[in-house]
Amino acid sequence: MYVIKNSLFVKLFYCFLILFVNALSNKLLADWPQFRGPSGDGRVNVISHPKKWSAKENLAWSQSISGGGWSSPIIFGKKVFLTTAVDSKNTKPLGHAGGVRNMRGKKPTEPYDFKLICLNLQDGSLNWQKTITKKQPKFSIHPSNTYATESPVTDGKHVFCYFAAIGKVAAVDFEGQLVWNVDVGAFPSGNGFGTGSSLTLSKGKLFIQCDNDQDSFVLALDVANGKEIWKSKRSSRTSWSSPFLWKNKKRTDLVVCGSGTVTGYDPASGKTNWRITNARSAFTASPASDGRYIFLGNSGPMSQGPLFAIGPEVSEESKLDITKLPKGIKWAIQRGGPGMASPVVSGEYLYVCSRGFLSCYSTNSGKRIYKSRLPSSKSIAASMWADDEHIFLMDESGKTFVVKSGKEFEILAENQLDDLFWSTPAVSNGNLLLRGSNKLYCIREIRGINEK
Fold first, then answer.
1. Domain spans in the chain, listed from the N-terminal domain onward
2. Which DSSP string corresponds to 294-314?
3. What pLDDT score does 103 carry?
4. Which SS3 state, helix, strand or coil, does residue 95 take?
5. What DSSP assignment string belongs to 122-145?
Protein backbone atom coordinates (compact mmCIF):
# COMPACT_ATOMS: atom_id res chain seq x y z
CA MET A 1 0.00 0.00 0.00
CA TYR A 2 2.85 2.36 0.81
CA VAL A 3 4.41 1.72 -2.60
CA ILE A 4 1.14 2.44 -4.38
CA LYS A 5 0.58 5.65 -2.44
CA ASN A 6 4.16 6.74 -2.92
CA SER A 7 3.95 6.06 -6.66
CA LEU A 8 0.73 8.06 -6.87
CA PHE A 9 2.37 10.90 -4.93
CA VAL A 10 5.32 10.97 -7.35
CA LYS A 11 3.00 11.03 -10.36
CA LEU A 12 0.96 13.87 -8.88
CA PHE A 13 4.13 15.77 -8.02
CA TYR A 14 5.47 15.51 -11.57
CA CYS A 15 2.08 16.50 -13.02
CA PHE A 16 2.10 19.60 -10.81
CA LEU A 17 5.70 20.35 -11.79
CA ILE A 18 4.90 20.10 -15.50
CA LEU A 19 1.86 22.36 -15.10
CA PHE A 20 3.95 24.89 -13.18
CA VAL A 21 6.74 24.91 -15.78
CA ASN A 22 4.23 25.23 -18.63
CA ALA A 23 2.46 28.09 -16.87
CA LEU A 24 5.77 29.86 -16.28
CA SER A 25 6.81 29.28 -19.88
CA ASN A 26 3.49 30.60 -21.20
CA LYS A 27 3.82 33.70 -18.99
CA LEU A 28 7.29 34.44 -20.36
CA LEU A 29 6.13 33.88 -23.93
CA ALA A 30 3.04 36.01 -23.32
CA ASP A 31 5.17 39.12 -22.88
CA TRP A 32 6.53 41.08 -25.84
CA PRO A 33 9.79 42.44 -24.38
CA GLN A 34 11.51 43.76 -27.52
CA PHE A 35 11.24 44.58 -31.22
CA ARG A 36 9.53 41.63 -32.95
CA GLY A 37 8.79 39.77 -29.72
CA PRO A 38 10.49 37.18 -27.46
CA SER A 39 12.40 35.49 -30.28
CA GLY A 40 13.08 38.75 -32.13
CA ASP A 41 11.65 37.49 -35.41
CA GLY A 42 7.88 38.05 -35.25
CA ARG A 43 6.96 34.42 -34.60
CA VAL A 44 4.13 33.66 -32.18
CA ASN A 45 3.24 30.15 -30.98
CA VAL A 46 -0.50 30.68 -31.34
CA ILE A 47 -2.04 34.02 -32.24
CA SER A 48 -4.98 34.62 -29.92
CA HIS A 49 -5.81 38.21 -30.82
CA PRO A 50 -8.80 38.77 -33.16
CA LYS A 51 -8.38 38.15 -36.87
CA LYS A 52 -10.87 40.91 -37.65
CA TRP A 53 -11.00 44.47 -36.36
CA SER A 54 -11.91 48.03 -37.25
CA ALA A 55 -12.73 51.28 -35.47
CA LYS A 56 -16.08 49.67 -34.56
CA GLU A 57 -15.07 46.05 -34.00
CA ASN A 58 -12.66 44.64 -31.40
CA LEU A 59 -11.02 48.01 -30.70
CA ALA A 60 -10.55 47.86 -26.92
CA TRP A 61 -9.01 51.32 -26.60
CA SER A 62 -6.90 53.96 -28.33
CA GLN A 63 -4.57 56.45 -26.67
CA SER A 64 -3.16 59.62 -28.20
CA ILE A 65 0.64 59.78 -28.18
CA SER A 66 2.36 63.16 -28.30
CA GLY A 67 5.28 63.82 -30.62
CA GLY A 68 6.67 61.42 -33.19
CA GLY A 69 7.97 57.89 -32.84
CA TRP A 70 8.16 54.74 -34.94
CA SER A 71 9.59 52.66 -32.10
CA SER A 72 7.52 49.54 -31.44
CA PRO A 73 5.59 49.27 -28.20
CA ILE A 74 6.76 46.52 -25.85
CA ILE A 75 4.69 44.66 -23.24
CA PHE A 76 5.55 43.20 -19.87
CA GLY A 77 2.70 41.99 -17.67
CA LYS A 78 0.07 44.72 -17.67
CA LYS A 79 2.48 47.49 -18.68
CA VAL A 80 3.07 48.91 -22.15
CA PHE A 81 6.21 50.92 -22.87
CA LEU A 82 7.01 53.10 -25.89
CA THR A 83 9.24 56.06 -26.72
CA THR A 84 8.58 59.37 -28.44
CA ALA A 85 10.33 62.65 -29.29
CA VAL A 86 8.27 65.82 -28.75
CA ASP A 87 8.92 69.35 -30.01
CA SER A 88 6.81 72.50 -29.59
CA LYS A 89 5.00 71.83 -32.87
CA ASN A 90 4.14 68.24 -31.94
CA THR A 91 5.75 67.17 -35.22
CA LYS A 92 4.45 63.92 -36.72
CA PRO A 93 6.05 61.77 -39.45
CA LEU A 94 4.65 61.67 -42.98
CA GLY A 95 3.91 58.67 -45.19
CA HIS A 96 5.25 57.87 -48.64
CA ALA A 97 2.15 59.13 -50.43
CA GLY A 98 2.09 62.44 -52.26
CA GLY A 99 5.76 62.66 -53.22
CA VAL A 100 7.09 62.59 -49.64
CA ARG A 101 9.50 59.82 -50.63
CA ASN A 102 11.60 62.33 -52.58
CA MET A 103 11.51 65.11 -49.99
CA ARG A 104 14.52 66.03 -47.87
CA GLY A 105 14.44 66.75 -44.17
CA LYS A 106 15.30 70.01 -42.44
CA LYS A 107 17.64 70.35 -39.52
CA PRO A 108 15.79 70.81 -36.22
CA THR A 109 15.79 74.32 -34.81
CA GLU A 110 14.77 73.52 -31.23
CA PRO A 111 15.22 70.86 -28.55
CA TYR A 112 13.04 67.74 -28.36
CA ASP A 113 11.77 66.04 -25.23
CA PHE A 114 12.92 62.42 -25.53
CA LYS A 115 10.40 60.43 -23.51
CA LEU A 116 9.59 56.96 -22.30
CA ILE A 117 5.86 56.41 -21.76
CA CYS A 118 4.22 53.68 -19.65
CA LEU A 119 0.56 52.79 -20.26
CA ASN A 120 -1.87 50.35 -18.67
CA LEU A 121 -2.46 47.44 -21.07
CA GLN A 122 -6.00 46.92 -19.86
CA ASP A 123 -7.45 50.35 -20.67
CA GLY A 124 -4.63 52.44 -22.21
CA SER A 125 -4.50 54.88 -19.30
CA LEU A 126 -1.24 56.67 -18.57
CA ASN A 127 0.79 55.20 -15.71
CA TRP A 128 3.69 57.65 -16.08
CA GLN A 129 5.99 59.33 -18.58
CA LYS A 130 9.65 60.10 -18.11
CA THR A 131 11.73 62.66 -20.00
CA ILE A 132 15.10 60.99 -20.54
CA THR A 133 16.64 64.23 -21.80
CA LYS A 134 15.78 67.42 -23.64
CA LYS A 135 18.17 68.09 -26.49
CA GLN A 136 18.36 69.45 -30.03
CA PRO A 137 19.48 66.76 -32.50
CA LYS A 138 22.47 67.60 -34.70
CA PHE A 139 21.20 66.00 -37.88
CA SER A 140 18.10 66.18 -40.04
CA ILE A 141 15.91 63.17 -40.80
CA HIS A 142 13.62 62.28 -43.68
CA PRO A 143 10.04 63.55 -43.14
CA SER A 144 8.83 59.93 -42.99
CA ASN A 145 11.19 59.05 -40.13
CA THR A 146 11.21 60.13 -36.46
CA TYR A 147 13.72 60.91 -33.73
CA ALA A 148 12.37 57.95 -31.71
CA THR A 149 12.47 55.01 -34.10
CA GLU A 150 14.62 52.61 -32.04
CA SER A 151 12.42 50.22 -30.04
CA PRO A 152 13.12 49.79 -26.31
CA VAL A 153 13.71 46.43 -24.60
CA THR A 154 13.02 45.15 -21.07
CA ASP A 155 14.46 42.46 -18.80
CA GLY A 156 11.38 42.55 -16.56
CA LYS A 157 13.00 44.94 -14.08
CA HIS A 158 14.10 47.88 -16.21
CA VAL A 159 13.28 49.36 -19.60
CA PHE A 160 16.24 50.28 -21.80
CA CYS A 161 15.87 53.09 -24.34
CA TYR A 162 18.11 54.16 -27.19
CA PHE A 163 17.72 57.48 -29.00
CA ALA A 164 20.36 57.24 -31.74
CA ALA A 165 19.64 60.76 -33.01
CA ILE A 166 21.25 62.16 -29.85
CA GLY A 167 23.37 59.12 -28.91
CA LYS A 168 21.60 58.54 -25.60
CA VAL A 169 21.08 55.14 -23.94
CA ALA A 170 19.15 54.97 -20.66
CA ALA A 171 17.72 52.51 -18.14
CA VAL A 172 14.45 53.30 -16.35
CA ASP A 173 12.78 51.18 -13.66
CA PHE A 174 9.13 50.15 -13.80
CA GLU A 175 8.15 53.11 -11.59
CA GLY A 176 9.60 55.63 -14.04
CA GLN A 177 12.83 56.42 -12.18
CA LEU A 178 16.01 56.92 -14.19
CA VAL A 179 18.61 54.32 -13.14
CA TRP A 180 21.47 55.28 -15.48
CA ASN A 181 22.13 56.99 -18.80
CA VAL A 182 25.17 57.10 -21.07
CA ASP A 183 26.17 58.85 -24.28
CA VAL A 184 27.44 56.68 -27.13
CA GLY A 185 27.61 59.41 -29.78
CA ALA A 186 25.33 60.70 -32.54
CA PHE A 187 26.35 60.41 -36.19
CA PRO A 188 25.10 61.33 -39.69
CA SER A 189 23.04 58.76 -41.57
CA GLY A 190 23.01 57.78 -45.23
CA ASN A 191 21.09 60.25 -47.41
CA GLY A 192 19.97 62.04 -44.24
CA PHE A 193 17.25 59.46 -43.64
CA GLY A 194 17.89 59.10 -39.91
CA THR A 195 18.30 56.13 -37.62
CA GLY A 196 16.29 53.03 -36.75
CA SER A 197 18.22 50.06 -35.29
CA SER A 198 16.48 48.72 -32.18
CA LEU A 199 17.96 47.21 -29.03
CA THR A 200 18.28 43.61 -27.91
CA LEU A 201 19.69 42.04 -24.76
CA SER A 202 20.89 38.75 -23.33
CA LYS A 203 22.57 37.57 -20.12
CA GLY A 204 23.02 41.00 -18.61
CA LYS A 205 24.26 42.64 -21.81
CA LEU A 206 22.47 45.33 -23.84
CA PHE A 207 23.45 45.28 -27.53
CA ILE A 208 23.49 48.38 -29.72
CA GLN A 209 24.09 48.51 -33.47
CA CYS A 210 25.18 51.94 -34.68
CA ASP A 211 25.92 51.78 -38.42
CA ASN A 212 26.30 55.28 -39.78
CA ASP A 213 28.24 57.31 -42.33
CA GLN A 214 31.01 58.40 -39.97
CA ASP A 215 32.03 55.92 -37.26
CA SER A 216 30.15 52.60 -37.19
CA PHE A 217 30.29 50.15 -34.30
CA VAL A 218 28.43 47.47 -32.34
CA LEU A 219 28.46 47.81 -28.57
CA ALA A 220 27.61 45.75 -25.49
CA LEU A 221 26.70 47.56 -22.26
CA ASP A 222 26.24 46.18 -18.75
CA VAL A 223 22.51 46.38 -17.97
CA ALA A 224 23.28 47.06 -14.29
CA ASN A 225 25.18 50.31 -14.79
CA GLY A 226 25.51 51.12 -18.50
CA LYS A 227 29.27 50.54 -18.54
CA GLU A 228 30.90 49.28 -21.73
CA ILE A 229 31.65 45.53 -21.77
CA TRP A 230 32.97 45.40 -25.33
CA LYS A 231 32.91 47.48 -28.50
CA SER A 232 33.72 46.43 -32.04
CA LYS A 233 34.45 48.94 -34.79
CA ARG A 234 32.77 48.29 -38.13
CA SER A 235 33.60 49.27 -41.69
CA SER A 236 29.89 49.23 -42.56
CA ARG A 237 28.08 52.44 -43.42
CA THR A 238 24.47 53.30 -42.56
CA SER A 239 21.99 50.46 -42.19
CA TRP A 240 18.71 50.16 -40.30
CA SER A 241 18.50 46.47 -39.43
CA SER A 242 18.38 45.52 -35.74
CA PRO A 243 20.82 43.10 -34.06
CA PHE A 244 19.47 39.57 -33.82
CA LEU A 245 20.42 36.84 -31.33
CA TRP A 246 20.59 33.55 -33.22
CA LYS A 247 20.65 30.51 -30.91
CA ASN A 248 21.62 27.63 -33.19
CA LYS A 249 22.79 24.09 -32.45
CA LYS A 250 26.46 25.12 -32.32
CA ARG A 251 26.47 28.44 -30.48
CA THR A 252 24.71 31.78 -30.02
CA ASP A 253 25.61 34.51 -32.51
CA LEU A 254 24.80 38.20 -32.35
CA VAL A 255 23.94 38.74 -36.02
CA VAL A 256 24.43 42.28 -37.31
CA CYS A 257 23.45 43.20 -40.87
CA GLY A 258 25.28 46.21 -42.32
CA SER A 259 25.88 47.78 -45.71
CA GLY A 260 26.56 44.73 -47.88
CA THR A 261 27.80 42.58 -44.98
CA VAL A 262 26.39 40.23 -42.36
CA THR A 263 28.52 39.52 -39.28
CA GLY A 264 28.14 37.00 -36.48
CA TYR A 265 29.69 38.16 -33.19
CA ASP A 266 30.28 36.27 -29.97
CA PRO A 267 27.82 38.03 -27.60
CA ALA A 268 30.11 37.49 -24.62
CA SER A 269 33.32 38.96 -26.04
CA GLY A 270 32.50 40.77 -29.29
CA LYS A 271 34.84 38.45 -31.21
CA THR A 272 33.88 38.00 -34.87
CA ASN A 273 32.80 34.39 -35.45
CA TRP A 274 32.03 34.81 -39.16
CA ARG A 275 31.28 37.40 -41.82
CA ILE A 276 29.43 37.28 -45.16
CA THR A 277 30.34 39.99 -47.69
CA ASN A 278 29.04 40.94 -51.14
CA ALA A 279 25.45 41.16 -49.95
CA ARG A 280 24.97 44.28 -52.11
CA SER A 281 23.24 47.21 -50.38
CA ALA A 282 22.41 48.28 -46.84
CA PHE A 283 19.94 46.25 -44.79
CA THR A 284 16.67 47.77 -43.66
CA ALA A 285 14.87 44.56 -42.70
CA SER A 286 16.01 42.35 -39.82
CA PRO A 287 16.52 38.55 -40.04
CA ALA A 288 13.91 35.85 -39.59
CA SER A 289 14.54 32.35 -38.25
CA ASP A 290 12.94 28.91 -37.99
CA GLY A 291 15.21 27.77 -35.16
CA ARG A 292 17.66 26.10 -37.57
CA TYR A 293 18.56 28.77 -40.10
CA ILE A 294 18.35 32.53 -40.33
CA PHE A 295 16.87 34.15 -43.43
CA LEU A 296 17.80 37.63 -44.54
CA GLY A 297 18.17 39.93 -47.50
CA ASN A 298 17.96 43.50 -48.68
CA SER A 299 16.76 45.76 -51.45
CA GLY A 300 17.96 49.11 -52.74
CA PRO A 301 15.80 52.07 -53.79
CA MET A 302 15.71 50.97 -57.44
CA SER A 303 16.36 47.20 -57.35
CA GLN A 304 15.72 44.08 -55.31
CA GLY A 305 18.75 42.53 -53.62
CA PRO A 306 19.52 38.92 -52.64
CA LEU A 307 17.65 36.66 -50.25
CA PHE A 308 19.61 33.89 -48.54
CA ALA A 309 19.63 31.39 -45.68
CA ILE A 310 22.55 30.90 -43.28
CA GLY A 311 23.13 27.67 -41.34
CA PRO A 312 25.10 27.06 -38.14
CA GLU A 313 28.02 25.65 -40.18
CA VAL A 314 29.03 29.20 -41.12
CA SER A 315 32.40 29.82 -39.48
CA GLU A 316 34.64 32.12 -41.51
CA GLU A 317 34.74 35.17 -43.74
CA SER A 318 33.30 34.42 -47.15
CA LYS A 319 31.86 36.17 -50.16
CA LEU A 320 28.22 35.67 -51.08
CA ASP A 321 28.22 34.03 -54.51
CA ILE A 322 24.88 32.84 -55.88
CA THR A 323 26.53 30.47 -58.38
CA LYS A 324 28.89 28.85 -55.86
CA LEU A 325 27.56 29.01 -52.33
CA PRO A 326 30.18 29.35 -49.60
CA LYS A 327 30.19 27.14 -46.52
CA GLY A 328 27.30 27.87 -44.21
CA ILE A 329 24.99 29.36 -46.87
CA LYS A 330 22.05 26.97 -47.17
CA TRP A 331 20.57 28.62 -50.26
CA ALA A 332 20.51 31.99 -52.00
CA ILE A 333 18.37 33.83 -54.55
CA GLN A 334 19.67 36.66 -56.71
CA ARG A 335 16.62 38.92 -56.41
CA GLY A 336 14.29 38.08 -53.56
CA GLY A 337 15.25 40.40 -50.73
CA PRO A 338 12.65 42.18 -48.58
CA GLY A 339 11.91 45.88 -48.57
CA MET A 340 11.53 47.71 -45.27
CA ALA A 341 9.32 45.04 -43.66
CA SER A 342 11.24 42.19 -42.05
CA PRO A 343 10.36 38.67 -43.27
CA VAL A 344 8.74 36.01 -41.09
CA VAL A 345 8.58 32.20 -40.89
CA SER A 346 5.29 30.32 -40.66
CA GLY A 347 5.49 26.54 -40.56
CA GLU A 348 7.79 25.36 -43.35
CA TYR A 349 7.58 28.61 -45.27
CA LEU A 350 9.35 31.96 -45.34
CA TYR A 351 7.29 35.03 -46.26
CA VAL A 352 8.89 38.11 -47.79
CA CYS A 353 7.19 41.39 -48.66
CA SER A 354 8.56 43.81 -51.26
CA ARG A 355 6.98 46.45 -53.49
CA GLY A 356 3.40 45.40 -52.80
CA PHE A 357 4.00 41.67 -53.40
CA LEU A 358 4.05 38.82 -50.91
CA SER A 359 6.39 35.95 -51.79
CA CYS A 360 6.39 32.51 -50.18
CA TYR A 361 9.53 30.35 -50.12
CA SER A 362 10.41 26.90 -48.83
CA THR A 363 12.64 27.31 -45.79
CA ASN A 364 14.48 24.11 -46.71
CA SER A 365 15.27 24.73 -50.38
CA GLY A 366 14.61 28.41 -51.06
CA LYS A 367 12.24 27.45 -53.86
CA ARG A 368 9.66 30.16 -54.44
CA ILE A 369 6.18 28.75 -53.94
CA TYR A 370 4.29 31.86 -55.09
CA LYS A 371 4.52 35.61 -55.58
CA SER A 372 1.21 37.46 -55.34
CA ARG A 373 0.21 41.09 -55.26
CA LEU A 374 -1.47 42.45 -52.16
CA PRO A 375 -4.55 44.18 -53.59
CA SER A 376 -4.67 47.97 -53.20
CA SER A 377 -1.84 47.97 -50.67
CA LYS A 378 0.24 51.01 -49.81
CA SER A 379 3.88 51.07 -48.75
CA ILE A 380 4.64 48.48 -46.04
CA ALA A 381 7.23 49.41 -43.41
CA ALA A 382 5.93 47.52 -40.35
CA SER A 383 7.41 44.05 -39.98
CA MET A 384 5.20 40.98 -40.33
CA TRP A 385 4.08 38.68 -37.51
CA ALA A 386 2.78 35.11 -37.76
CA ASP A 387 1.98 31.77 -36.18
CA ASP A 388 1.86 28.45 -38.06
CA GLU A 389 -1.54 29.23 -39.58
CA HIS A 390 -1.60 32.98 -40.30
CA ILE A 391 0.62 35.77 -41.62
CA PHE A 392 -0.20 39.41 -40.84
CA LEU A 393 0.96 42.38 -42.94
CA MET A 394 0.00 46.00 -42.24
CA ASP A 395 0.54 48.80 -44.76
CA GLU A 396 1.07 52.44 -43.90
CA SER A 397 -2.61 53.33 -44.46
CA GLY A 398 -3.70 50.98 -41.65
CA LYS A 399 -4.88 48.12 -43.85
CA THR A 400 -3.86 44.75 -42.41
CA PHE A 401 -3.94 41.63 -44.56
CA VAL A 402 -4.48 38.29 -42.83
CA VAL A 403 -3.02 35.62 -45.12
CA LYS A 404 -3.42 31.88 -44.73
CA SER A 405 -0.15 30.03 -44.21
CA GLY A 406 0.66 27.41 -46.82
CA LYS A 407 1.34 26.82 -50.51
CA GLU A 408 -1.66 28.74 -51.82
CA PHE A 409 -2.05 32.52 -51.55
CA GLU A 410 -5.31 33.20 -49.74
CA ILE A 411 -6.37 36.38 -47.97
CA LEU A 412 -8.57 35.47 -45.02
CA ALA A 413 -9.39 39.01 -43.91
CA GLU A 414 -8.64 42.69 -44.51
CA ASN A 415 -8.83 45.07 -41.56
CA GLN A 416 -8.68 48.86 -41.55
CA LEU A 417 -7.80 51.60 -39.07
CA ASP A 418 -7.40 55.22 -40.14
CA ASP A 419 -3.95 56.49 -39.19
CA LEU A 420 -0.38 56.31 -40.54
CA PHE A 421 1.41 53.09 -39.55
CA TRP A 422 5.12 52.29 -39.84
CA SER A 423 5.75 50.87 -36.37
CA THR A 424 5.95 47.08 -35.94
CA PRO A 425 3.08 45.77 -33.75
CA ALA A 426 3.27 44.01 -30.38
CA VAL A 427 1.31 40.88 -29.40
CA SER A 428 0.50 39.54 -25.92
CA ASN A 429 -2.25 37.46 -24.28
CA GLY A 430 -4.93 38.14 -26.87
CA ASN A 431 -3.91 41.79 -27.27
CA LEU A 432 -2.55 43.36 -30.45
CA LEU A 433 -0.99 46.82 -30.17
CA LEU A 434 -0.78 48.91 -33.33
CA ARG A 435 1.12 52.18 -33.15
CA GLY A 436 -0.02 54.86 -35.53
CA SER A 437 1.41 58.31 -36.04
CA ASN A 438 -1.26 59.80 -33.77
CA LYS A 439 -2.44 57.04 -31.46
CA LEU A 440 -1.68 53.64 -29.99
CA TYR A 441 -4.51 51.15 -30.65
CA CYS A 442 -5.29 48.00 -28.69
CA ILE A 443 -7.14 45.23 -30.52
CA ARG A 444 -8.81 42.66 -28.27
CA GLU A 445 -11.86 40.43 -28.60
CA ILE A 446 -14.92 42.27 -27.33
CA ARG A 447 -17.66 39.71 -26.91
CA GLY A 448 -20.48 42.12 -26.11
CA ILE A 449 -20.09 43.84 -29.47
CA ASN A 450 -19.42 40.74 -31.53
CA GLU A 451 -22.46 38.86 -30.23
CA LYS A 452 -24.94 41.55 -31.25
1. 36-66+340-452, 73-150+152-201, 242-338
2. EEEEEE-SSSEEEEEEE-TT-
3. 75
4. coil
5. TT--EEEEEEEEEE--SS---TT-
- How do residues 310-357 score in pLDDT, each as one tens digit? 999 999 899 998 888 999 999 999 999 999 999 999 999 999 999 899
The average confidence (pLDDT) of the chain is 92
Could you tell me which residues come within 8 angstroms of residue 19 by beta carbon, excluding any fewer than 6 positions away? none
Residue 256: name the closest of 83, 29, 40 by CA.
40
Share of the chain above pLDDT 70, in %: 91
DSSP, residue by residue, 17-53: HHHHHHHHHHHHHH-B-STTTTTTSSB-SS--S-S--
Which amino acid type is present at position 272?
T
pTM, to two decimals? 0.91
Asked whether this chain's domains 36-66+340-452 and 73-150+152-201 adopt the same fold, the reply is no
CATH, domain range 36-66+340-452: 2.40.128.630
Q: State residue 7's pLDDT score.
A: 54
Structure confidence at residue 112 as a pLDDT band (50, 70, 90)? very high
The DSSP H or E segment spanning 447 is helix 447-450
> For 361, phi and psi rounded to 5 degrees?
-125, 150
Fold of 73-150+152-201: Thrombin, subunit H (2.40.10)
Domain 242-338 has CATH 2.40.10.480: yes
